[in-house]
Amino acid sequence: MDFSLNEEQVILLEGFKRFLESDIRPIADEYRDKFIPKDMALDIQKRLIPFGVVNGMVSESDGGMDLDQVTYGLLMHELARVSPDIAVTTQIYGITTKLMSAAPKHLKAKYQRDLMDCNTAASVGLSEPDGGSDMAGVKLRAKKDGDNYILNGEKTWNSSGGYSDFIFVLANFSDGSSDQGLGLILVERNHGYQTKDLEKTALNSQSTAQVFFNDVKVPAENVVVSAPNAMKSMLGTLAMSRPIVTMMALGIAQAALDEALSFAKDRKQFGGPIAGKQMIQDKLATMATKIEAGKLMALKALDQIDRGAPDQVHVAMTKWYGTELACEVVYDAVQIHGASGIIREYLVEYLNRAVRVFPFTEGTTEIQKLIIGRALTGISAF
Ligand SMILES: Cc1cc2nc3c(=O)[nH]c(=O)nc-3n(C[C@H](O)[C@H](O)[C@H](O)COP(=O)(O)OP(=O)(O)OC[C@H]3O[C@@H](n4cnc5c(N)ncnc54)[C@H](O)[C@@H]3O)c2cc1C
Fold it and tell me: Which segments within the chain are labelled E, that is strand?
C-alpha cells in the first residue's frame, strides 16, 4: 500500500490549502462560537465545491467529481484543520449528496441539482432522544395513509438540521395494519417539520438541531429506501463516513500541534524556549506520532473502500482509535500552553472543545469496540 501523493493530489491539496488560508481562516476566526447564518453557510459551501469536498464523491454521470475516498479524506483533514465547524457542514453535504445519488430517479430529478449546487441544505435524521447508539430502536413512525405517509416522532442532533430544506429521515414504517421495519424517507420542511437548534460545547457556528414531526404528511413517492432495507443502507453509509470523520478529528489534532509548536518556540522559561526542554519535546514527538498513526489507519480504511473491499472491523478500529488519539493530542497541546491553554484568545482552547465531539459522533468509541469484539469472539455484546 503506497500512500505517497500523486501529482494530481499534490496540486489539489496545495491549491486547497492556499484557499483555506486566504478565504476560510478569516471566517473561522471571526465566527468561532458564533452562528453562521444559512445564506452565508451555503455561500461558503458553494466556494468549496470546486475542490471536491462538497459533492466530490458523487459520480461524474450524476454531475459530481467522482473523487476517490483517500483524496476526499485528505481534503477533509485540511478543512477541519482550519475550521472544524465548516468541515462538519461540508461533511453533511458529502453524506447527503451521496444518499441522493442512490435515490430513485424522480427524487433525483426534483432535489439533486439544487443540493449539489448548495442552493439547498439537507440533513440526516437517524438519532432520536431515546435512540442514539441503538439505531434499530427508532421510534419515529411513518404510517401509510393513502398516497402519503404520516410521520410522528422526534429526531435529534441533526447536523445542518436547523436550516435544512429537507431531511433524510430513518423511520419505522407501517402499512396501516402491520410494521414493515426501517425505511428512509425524504421529508421537506414544507411538509411541516419543526426544528430547534442545540447549544453545544463547540461547533456552534454550524447547526445541530432537534427536529419534531407532528402528523407530518409526506408523499409516499418520497421514500428513498423502502422498509426494511434502510438499516443496512445507513450502516453502509456510516462505514464509509467514519474514516472521514477520523481524518477530520486528526485535522483538529494537527492544528493543535501547529499551535503547540509555535507556542513552545516562543515561550521562554528557565532561560530558554520551552521547545528546548526534553519533556516538551517528548510531548511534541508523541503528538506528531499519534497523528501519523491515526492517519495511516484512516488512509488504509479509505484505500480499502476505494478498492471495493471495505473492512468494517478496520473501520471500527480507525474510528475509535483515531478520534481518541486526536483528543489526546489536543489535550497535550493545551498542557504545553500552560494556563494560556484555557484562555479564549488561544486557538487550542477552542480546539480542545471541538475535538471532544468526535469520539461519539457517527458511532461511539464503545460501539466501535463492540464491533471489533464481536468480530474477535463471534459473540455480539450489543
Ligand atoms: C455535533 C454532533 C453532530 C451529530 N450529527 C448527527 C446527525 O447529523 N444525524 C444524526 O442522526 N445524529 C447525529 N449525531 C448524533 C450521534 O450520532 C450520537 O451522539 C451517537 O450515535 C451516540 O448516541 P447518543 O449520544 O444518544 O449516546 P447513547 O447511545 O445514549 O450512549 C451513551 C453512552 O453509552 C454508551 N453505550 C451505548 N450502548 C452501549 C452498549 N451496548 N455497550 C456499552 N456502551 C454503550 C455509548 O458509547 C455512550 O458512551 C450528532 C452528534 C453530535 C454531537
Answer: 122-125, 141-145, 148-159, 166-174, 179-188, 194-197, 208-219, 223-225, 268-269, 272-273
Q: Whose CA is nearest to atom 50 of ligand 1?
A: 157
The whole-number mean pLDDT for each consecutive block of 10 residues of the chain, a chain of 382 residues, reads: 90 97 98 97 98 92 92 98 98 96 96 97 97 90 96 98 98 89 97 97 96 98 95 87 97 98 98 98 98 98 95 97 98 98 97 97 96 97 93
Q: What is the pLDDT of residue 182?
A: 95
pTM exceeding 0.90 = yes
Q: What's the confidence (pLDDT) of residue 264?
A: 98
Same-domain status, 148 and 109: no
Domain annotation covers residue 91? yes
Whether 2 is covered by a domain: the verdict is: no
Look up the domain containing 178 and give its range.
122-228
CATH number at residue 141: 2.40.110.10
Q: Looking at ligand 1, which residue's alpha carbon is closest to its atom 4?
A: 157
Whether 245 and 338 share a structural domain = yes
- Residue 362: all three cell numbers together: 457517527
For residue 70, what is the enclosing H or E element? helix 69-82
- Residues 223 and 235 both lie in one domain: no
List all residues whose CB is within 6 A of at least one atom of ligand 1. Answer: 124-127, 132-133, 157-159, 203, 208, 357, 360-362, 364, 366-367, 370, 382
Q: Residue 277 and residue 288: Cα distance in Å, rounded? A: 17
